[in-house]
Specification:
- InterPro entries: Thiolase, Thiolase-like, Thiolase_C, Thiolase_CS, Thiolase_N.
- This is Acetyl-CoA acetyltransferase.
- Belongs to the thiolase-like superfamily. Thiolase family.
- The protein is an alpha/beta fold.
- The protein has a domain of 142 residues: Thiolase/Chalcone synthase (Peroxisomal Thiolase, Chain A, domain 1, 3-Layer(aba) Sandwich).
- The chain is built from 13 helices and 11 strands.
- It has a 9-stranded mixed beta sheet with strand order 3-2-4-7-1-8-11-10-9, with helices on both faces. The chain has a two-stranded antiparallel sheet with strand order 5-6.
- A hairpin with a 3-residue loop joins strand 10 and strand 11.
- The mean pLDDT is 96.
Length: 388
C-alpha cells in the first residue's frame, strides 16, 4: 500500500500587525520557508516535482501564482513548477492534502506543500472588495441561485462566530477564559523554547526575527472585559478572535521510493485526509462534522489522538468542537492557538501541521489531528502518525 511521509516541516516566526514582517514581500517570505526546508531536509531542490502553496486574497504582491514566484525568489530551478490554491483559511492544509495525494497516487515522489500570507500588505477580504469599483458589492451579489437558497443572510465570519456562540450557548466569559489560556500556553511554549526547532529565523533589514510576535504578555480577564463587542448585541470581541499576522510554512512530503532513493528519514506518516462541508452562513462549524466523518472513516476516536491543532479563528469554533467531540482541553492546542499566535490565513494550515509534528516529537505522542474552519462552511481534517 502506498504511503505519504512528512520528512521535514519548518515555518517562519509569525509577525504581528504592523510588526517585523509587515514589509517583507510575500514571495520573499515564502522563499524563506522554502530555503529553510531544502537546507534542513537535505533534499536536492532539482528533484522536487511540484510546489503547492496556499494563499488567500491573491492580489497585488500575492498574485501571479505565489507558489511559483516564491520558489523562483528562493533561487531554485525554473524547471520546478508551483501552484497556488485557495480553500480560504484551510488553503495550506489543503496544499498538504494535494501533495500527499500526488504521492499516494504514484504520479509524484517529492512534493513541497506550504503556504504564505502577508495580511499587513493585503488586508483580509481584499479580493472580495476589489470588485467594488466594477459594481459588485460582494462575491454573492447578483447570483440568483445563491439568493434563492440563502436569501440576504449575511455571509460574514463574525456573524458566523456569533451564530455558533449562541447555538452552543458559549458565553463571553467562557470565550475570554479560553483566549487567556491560549496566550498563557503560547508564552509558556516560547519561554521554554518549544518553537525554536520549527522556526527558521529571518533577517529583516539587519534585524533577525526568531520569535512569534503576536502573543500578548500581561493579558488579563479584566482587560478583555473592557473591550467592546464586534457586533451590536453580540458576544464576540477582538480578544477572542485571531490576529492579523504574516508568515509562511513549508513541508516536504515524499513517497517510500523517494525515501530510499534520496536517503531521507521520515518523521511522520499521513494517516488520514478528508474534507467536509456545512452551512456557509454559520460558516465556522464544519470542523465538527468533518472530524466525526474522519473518525468514522479511519476507525480512530478522540481517545486515540494525542494532540489536536484546531485553528482558533474565533474562540467559539474550538469550544463548540470540544463540546461535541468531547475533547479535553489539555490535548487541544497545547501550545496556544491563533488567538495568541496569529492567523496568517493561507499559511496557517501548514503552520499548524509544523507545530503539531514538533509537539508529537517533543512529547512522544503517536497520533495528531489537525482541523480548521474555512470560508464557505468547510473543514479539512488531517491525522498524522509520528514515526521513530
Amino acid at each position: 500500500m502506498a504511503e505519504a511521509y512528512i520528512v521535514d516541516a519548518v515555518r517562519t516566526p509569525v509577525g504581528r500587525k504592523k510588526g517585523s514582517l509587515s514589509g517583507v514581500h510575500p514571495a520573499d517570505l515564502g522563499a524563506h520557508a522554502l530555503t529553510a526546508l531544502v537546507e534542513r531536509s537535505g533534499i536536492d531542490p532539482d528533484v522536487v516535482e511540484d510546489v503547492v502553496f496556499g494563499c488567500v486574497d491573491t492580489i497585488g504582491p500575492q498574485a501571479g501564482d505565489i507558489a511559483r514566484t516564491a520558489w523562483l525568489a528562493a533561487g531554485y530551478s525554473e524547471a520546478v513548477p508551483g501552484v497556488t490554491i485557495d480553500r480560504q483559511c484551510g488553503s495550506s492544509q489543503q496544499a498538504i492534502h494535494f501533495a500527499a495525494q500526488g504521492v499516494l497516487s504514484g504520479t509524484q515522489d517529492v512534493v513541497i506543500a506550504g503556504g504564505v500570507q502577508n495580511m499587513n500588505q493585503i488586508p483580509i477580504g481584499a479580493a472580495m472588495t476589489s470588485a467594488k469599483p466594477l459594481g459588485f458589492t460582494d462575491p454573492f451579489s447578483g447570483s440568483k441561485g445563491w439568493a434563492a437558497r440563502y436569501g440576504d443572510e449575511p455571509v460574514d465570519q463574525f456573524h458566523g462566530a456569533e451564530l455558533i456562540a449562541k447555538r452552543w450557548d458559549i458565553s463571553r466569559e467562557e470565550m475570554e477564559h479560553f483566549a487567556l489560556a491560549s496566550h498563557e500556553r503560547a508564552i509558556h511554549a516560547i519561554d521554554n523554547g518549544w518553537f525554536e526547532k520549527e522556526i527558521a529565523p529571518i533577517d529583516v533589514d539587519g534585524t533577525v526575527v526568531a520569535v512569534d510576535e503576536p502573543p500578548r504578555r500581561g493579558t488579563t480577564l479584566e482587560k478583555m472585559a473592557e473591550l467592546k463587542v464586534l457586533m451590536e448585541g453580540g458576544r464576540m470581541t477582538a480578544a477572542v478572535a485571531s490576529q492579523i499576522s504574516d508568515g509562511a510554512a513549508a513541508l516536504l512530503i515524499v513517497s517510500e521510493r523517494a525515501l530510499k532513493r534520496y536517503g531521507l528519514t521520515p518523521r511522520a506518516r499521513i494517516h488520514h485526509m478528508s474534507v467536509r462541508g456545512a452551512s456557509p452562513i454559520e460558516m465556522l462549524s464544519a470542523p465538527i462534522p468533518a472530524t466525526e466523518y474522519a473518525f468514522a472513516k479511519c476507525g480512530l476516536g478522540i481517545d486515540d489522538i494525542d494532540a489536536v491543532e484546531i485553528n482558533e479563528a474565533f474562540a467559539p469554533v474550538v469550544l463548540s468542537w470540544m463540546k461535541d467531540i468531547k475533547a479535553p482541553h489539555e490535548k487541544v492546542n497545547p501550545n496556544g492557538g491563533a488567538i495568541a499566535l496569529g492567523h496568517p490565513l493561507g499559511a496557517t494550515g501548514a503552520r499548524l501541521m509544523t507545530t503539531l509534528l514538533h509537539h508529537l516529537e517533543r512529547t512522544g505522542g503517536r497520533y495528531g489531528l489537525q482541523t480548521m474552519c474555512e470560508g464557505g462552511g468547510q473543514a479539512n481534517v488531517t491525522i498524522i502518525e509520528r514515526l521513530g
